[in-house]
Structures are given as C-alpha cells and as structure tokens.
Amino acid sequence: MKPWETLDTATAPDGEALDLRRRGHEFLIRAGGYDLMSSEDDGSSKALSSLGIGALGRPAKHVLVGGLGMGFTLREALDRVGPEATVEVAELVEAVVRWNEGPLADVAGRPLEDPRARVFQGDVGGRIRHPPQPFDAILLDVDNGPDALAHDSNKSIYSAGGLDAAYGALAPGGVLGVWSFSDDRKFTSRCNRAGFTTQVEKVPASRKGRGRFHYIWIAKRR
Ligand SMILES: C[S@@+](CC[C@H](N)C(=O)[O-])C[C@H]1O[C@@H](n2cnc3c(N)ncnc32)[C@H](O)[C@@H]1O
Q1: Which of 18, 186, 210, 218 has the most CB within a 10 Å radius?
Q2: What is the pTM of this model?
Q3: Given ligand 1 and candidates 28, 42, 44, 141, which is best to mutate, with the most ligand atoms within 8 Å of its CB?
Q4: Which CATH superfamily groups domain 40-220?
Q5: Residue-range domain boundaries for the chain
C-alpha cells in the first residue's frame, strides 16, 4: 500500500494542529493527531443535506452549512436548491477553505466555484446567533457529535442556548440538521425542549453504504 503524503499543515484558532494528507485518490484531514475525516466517508455528510433540505417540503432559499470539511455537505446542498438560492458555508479554519480551493477542490466537485456558494470564515455559532436573514435550513457538522466534542468551544452550539439560537435563526418550518458519530437521546430531548419536532436517522458513513453508521438529527421548527 502507498504511504500517506502530507500536503500541508495548519493551526486552528484554538491552537490544534491540522494536516492534509493524500494516498492515491484518498484524502485525509487530521486534527490533533487524529483522523478528522476521509474523502471515502462522504455518505453521511451528503445525507445531512439530502435529509435536511428534503425535510423542508418547500424550496430552500437560504441554507447555512457549518463546517466545510471536504465540501460534501455543501456540494449536496447546492445540488438540492434552485438557481436563485444561496448556500453559505461557515468554516472556522482558514486553511480548510484554502485546501478546498486547491488540492481538495475536485473531491466534492468544486462546490466553492458555484456562484450560489458563499464562504463565511469564522464560527458557525456566531453566524447562527446573528443570522444575516432567516435560514430555511441549518446543517451542522462541526464536531464528533452533540456530546462527543473534540472542541470545547463548540459546546455552546449544541447546548439548550445554542438550540434556541438555531430555532430563532430559522424561518418558520425551517430545518436544523445535525451530524453525529453516535446517537444521543439527551440531545434529542434538548431539541424537543427548544420547540423542534425531532427525528434521528441512522445513515451509512461511506458512499458504498457498508461498514460504520453515523446519526443525523432532523429537527423541524414548528
Ligand atoms: C468533519 S468536518 C465537516 C465535513 C463536511 N460535512 C463535509 O462534507 O466534508 C468538520 C469541519 O468543521 C470545521 N469547524 C469546527 N468547528 C467549527 C465552528 N465552530 N464553526 C465553523 N466550522 C467549524 C472544521 O474545521 C472542519 O472543517
């Protein structure tokens, strides 16, 4: 098997070391010495958009995706909205945006080049608290899951206060989609307490539909 080649290294705002690796056609982003994501694991990232936008039951005009990763969620969202829609992606790490403009651009079909895509470089939590307009869907994949946080700073996004902010940032009938590595009943209860009607879907991690599963909350604003 070919060895991994390190293409670039970067430091996240919280000081965590990130690197981008390639082996043949596969790319890997590592954070703090652990695998954050592989280009092979696009199934659940895409399902976050297909399930979230699908649950709206009407065309989406404004969608917020957090974060960019390798661009699969963003790509799928763009493929599911009309020509007049905008899909904003909030990404905390400047290098991740740069990698998606460079070596990762083709991994998800060059989503940043789509004129409907907008990049907000910063914390998606801040964007939710101060939305530029109501969003029809907010699709979150910024950590391992609501209670399995790699970044303590993301805790507030999944907290009761974060869910209240997401509820307020959504248009009536809007959808909050949340990706997670594992199921979490307490988070489902928090979503319901915030006023959402909540469903949890178990989806294959990879595009091949084999192996591991991930979880996606589809929380609909009433
Ligand atoms: C697992 S990746 C997302 C994968 C993505 N679903 C895809 O389709 O490739 C998580 C991303 O969220 C970013 N991130 C982490 N915390 C964030 C935050 N608070 N705001 C915005 N982006 C964040 C990370 O830098 C990383 O790019």
Answers
A1: 218
A2: 0.97
A3: 141
A4: Vaccinia Virus protein VP39 (3.40.50.150)
A5: 40-220
